[in-house]
Amino acid sequence: MELIPLVQVSRYLRAGTALPWSVRDVHGALLLAKGYVLSGEAEVKALLARGMYVEAGEAAKVASRPDSGAPAVVENMSGRWARLEARLSSLLRSPADPHFLQRVKETIEPIAALADGNTDLLIFLILRHDYTRMVNYGVVHSLHSAALCSLLSRRLGWPESRRHSLIGAALTMNLHMLDLQGSLAIRGSAPSDKERQVIIEHPLASARLLRDAGLTDTDWLTTVEQHHECSNGSGYPAGLTNPGEMACLLHLVDCFTAKHSPRAGRKPQPAQKAARELFTQSAGDPMAALIIKEFGIYPPGVFVQLASGEMAVVTQRGASANAPIVAAITNKSGDPLAHPARRDTSAAAHAIVSAVPQTAIKVQVTVDALYDRHANR
């Protein structure tokens, strides 16, 4: 029996309608029979989050029907992003599960697809992530690193197989210390000697967990082992002076995401500052310059004040680095707008005066309100 992930046919799921095929677990065992009616959106989301499967033949028959496009659910990108985080939260904590490696590989393609879709929205979701649940810091950090690796490797023109190995390495680089990352983020203090030893050992220990799970991809394994090595020999655990190209890129992404992520007692660095600092610290490494180029001066998610007096949030990088497309969220008096209003900052009347820290913004606006196809018009 050939199975395909349920997420690939999620467009046919809708609350209140019957399943057009049976839903199965990874072994092919029946979980929900064809014709079962999903009671509500919560059940639809829970089903997708569990990573279930559909028999490929059944799916093909439904797709070939003349009315196959009828009961469709169009899940927005922020929904898929949240579901990926939820799935990884349990998956990355279960490397001993016999199906661990298969499920990680099934997660790589959706991440690559997100990066190949709306890049501006993906950057927004990363930079505006809500870190109130610090216990999940390690999972979020892995997901953000994987998504950025996908963006940057695409810009470099790497083939799909190499991109997928890099994304896999980013997802699994910290398997051995996932919960320790959350603990340190919550605590905000320096690690103890014992914890520091775990940190030093985690690249090799994480690679061992992957080998035990059956991974034979040498690029993936080597990248995990070397993702904290530096070309000047100051890295760990081996102090190498010639780490691989994939490991160097992952190292820079790892450092960048850590810089712009908050900890207890430490505010996040703005993305622009984090990228510039990384470029300086790496002595002008071309890959660090690549991060600056990808994000621009005002990346999506940055709050700005306009010449009009309005406060706005960047939603799309523009034709020039200093003139992005933004969504105004207040008028010049500081009063919230009923709906975000699209502004092109290349126009003098809406030019950016300055970046504004998030703490100065009192208006709450949802991702969907900013990126819905009817918004910002």
Provide key terms for this protein.
45% helix, 3 domains, 377 residues, disordered C terminus, 14 helices, five-stranded antiparallel beta sheet, globular, four-stranded antiparallel beta sheet, alpha+beta, Hypothetical protein af1432
Q: How does the SSE layout of this entry go?
A:
Layout: E1 3-5, E2 23-24, E3 30-32, H1 41-49, E4 53-55, H2 56-64, H3 77-91, H4 100-116, H5 119-127, H6 137-155, H7 160-172, H8 178-187, H9 193-212, H10 218-226, H11 245-259, H12 271-281, H13 286-295, E5 303-306, E6 311-316, E7 325-330, E8 336-344, E9 352-356, H14 367-371
Antiparallel strand pairs: 1-4, 2-3, 2-4, 5-6, 5-9, 6-7, 7-8
Helix pairs in contact: 3-4, 4-6, 4-7, 5-6, 6-7, 6-11, 7-10, 9-10, 10-11, 11-12, 12-13
If you had to describe this structure to a student in words, what would you say it looks like?
The structure is a single chain. It contains 14 helices and nine strands. The protein is α+β, with helices and mostly antiparallel strands and 377 residues long. It folds into three domains: 3-75, no CATH class; 78-295, Hypothetical protein af1432, CATH 1.10.3210; 303-371, no CATH class. The strands form two sheets. Strands 8-7-6-5-9 form a five-stranded antiparallel β-sheet. The longest helix is centred in the middle third of the chain and has 20 residues, at 193-212.
